[in-house]
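Lecture 7 notes: from sequence to structure.

We start with a single chain of 827 residues. Read the sequence below before looking at the structure.
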Amino acid sequence: MKVLRDWVDRHRRYHHLDPRMIRYAATLALVCYPLFYLLRFTQSSPGYDDWALRLIAMAACLLMLLHDRWPSALKPHFHLFIWVAPIYCLPFLFVFTSLKNGGGPAAVANTLMAAFFTVLLTDRRNAMVMLVIGFTSAFAAYWVTDPHPQIPLDYVARLPVLLLVVAGAALFKHGLERAVTIRVRQRYGALAGSIAHEMRNPLAQLKQCLEGIERGLPSPTAGQSPQALTGECLDGLYSHVAQGELAVQRGLQIMAMTLEEVQARPIRPESLGLLRAGETCARAVQEYGYENATQRSHVSLRVECDFVFRADETAFLFVLFNLIRNALANPGVRVQIVVDAGRVDVRDDGPGIAAEVQARLFQPFHTQGKTGGTGLGLAYCWRVMKAFGGSISCSSYPGRPTCFRLTLPLASAAQRETERKTALAKARALFDGRRLLVVDADAGARFLTRHKLAFFGAVVDECADGEQALLLLAQQQYDLIMLDLHLPGLDGYALTERIRAGHAGIDPNLCVVAYSGEPVVVAQIKARKASMDGFVSKPSEQGALLLALCRAMERALARDTGQQPPLLAGRAVLLADDNAYIRQTVAASLRHAGVAVVEADSGHSVLSRLATMDRCDAILLDIEMPGMNGLEAARAIRASAMAWQRAPILMLSAHSGSDILEEARRAGADDFLTKPFNLATVQARLQALSFSSPPPPRELERASRLEAAANQLLDIKRLDNYRRIGVLDELVVDYLPAIERLLDSVEVAAQAGDMKACCEALHSLVGMSGELGALALHRFARKCYIPLVEQERWPDPADWVTALHTLAARTRQALDTCAASAVLAKA
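Now the structure, written as tokens:
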């Protein structure tokens, strides 16, 4: 049985990568078995009637084709079946009927054909075993079932020919397989070497960035006293981090393009959309992972006639990345991307390419002028452009500039109009009636930005510095603020810090977008660190500006209305990865979000940890682990009777091939995440999983409290900050009576018709309620205050004073609950 299992397993591995050979053979047999049976009756003596044996063979072939419909209990035995079925259908059936018909030339031909197909269908060792079993069982069956068994002499006399054919076919197949193996090994060796070559520069650059960060850090000390960093040191650290991100980005671009071409992944139709050539090429120039600032200065863009085309944005960017990378491989070369009607030219002043080489440029594994190149980049470009309905060509001569031309089909007028209306409707839906603030010291930049945004129904205010912006934000409710990072006095970073701290009652969740001409990569990192919602490079086209603002506004609206994925706090997660550093970083990120994390370093450890856990809401499994890997662990979990058998499983792997994804799905995985991944992405994927049970009661109480914040009654985050510094109780005791007094003053002034006194009381109420974290009261008081100040009229509705008192009473009750509750202590 062990020998049989080994043969079957070898046969399974032979057909694992591409099972189409079995399907082709089964389809051919279903056609040929009945056809040749009928042809026999054209002869004067049909001979032995083997219709029953042919029906059995046809049934076996039909079962091979219907493998997907087999019962689940029988599917594990499929490979044993496709090992046994060819033995019966080929050597046994052909030799048995040949013996029954008394031999002859036709019998010899049939036997040779059966041997030939058997050798084709499997590896040579299995072919020999299957032929021996088939021939032997055919002779035995003939001897047992025939009343007068006789071995035809002419049939026996041709056995040496049969043996020679089988041996020759086996040797030929062995030679072919060996040649293919050597060729594949050479290709993969070249591929591995070329990837190592391509990755050397990004890794070296990343190493230099880490060394720069190390130099910029203050000297270590055993004490816990704070250590100051100068502004120059901080700028240096940000610059090193930015360069490190670029190096990682460049390495990921190289790996992504290589994998896309090696796996020949098709372009998904649903990923195609309308792109504007000028904007997309500008993004490619901006986002390419340059090695240094000098290299960046050597790449330029010129738009002569912009146009719109239909394509997958990511794939088209990868095409441009590859052409830029190939050109910059020659030191000192300058690259210019020219956009003209229906085409994009990527030109460089490099050494040029010979005509005979150009004919092979777009073939896989062919390189020119670059030692250690993958030889896959231009093949990838050709495949992508063909999928878009376009083309790529090269025009070059030795010693002269090179031009790669990307020809793209223009989008029709109807497609452009539909896209324009969709983008316009989306922008109007987000900005119509909203109030935006543009903060920029340049009056011309403010003027242009205001008019770009006003076209979409937004009410746009403007100011020239951070201090003016603070005054406006304290007096007026804004939905979004666009600010230059280098403002006179209070700069953009400091202004954002004040906003996020809720200074002077300003909404800390206000959408903040940086609009700056600073170097993009460094400025993006600084903006992200400053908790800004987006970054737009100055100057920017109206389309790119609106796209960035729409994305930032959508994120802010989701955050402000509570439309976020389910909370992770209180969940319990099992994290399995044999890399201790990955476990440490992912676990720290999850614990920061309130998740209880149990760690494991192998599949066997996963099963033992699960058996001892009181609660498990999700399982993160690395695929490549020693001993029992992640796929085996997932199958074991799904097949077990443990309490967490149906817990959602998120697979982690550095492999992204379709076969790995399919195998993970069959193993029971609910989702798949490819390394390297962003820690925020891990949290988002976990939040998106359907948990089988609610959080613990304590966390339900906390979730209820946070839901109250989403309903805009209290600013829980602000109150929690007060609790952490130990002033929450004092604020509640001092501010609540003061708010009551201000409400009484508002009521008295309103009854007396004293608009000035009412304005003063409401102004104090707006500031005090905002400072206390009484979010709903603060917003309603501001809503009442604005018509009094700006229009000198009394607020709507008529019972606004009563509404203020009612809201204040609800706020007081909520504040008392929060001050006494342990929920904030766990938030």
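Confidence is low (pLDDT under 50) at residues 368-375, 561-565, 697-711, 822-827. Keep this in mind for problem set 3.
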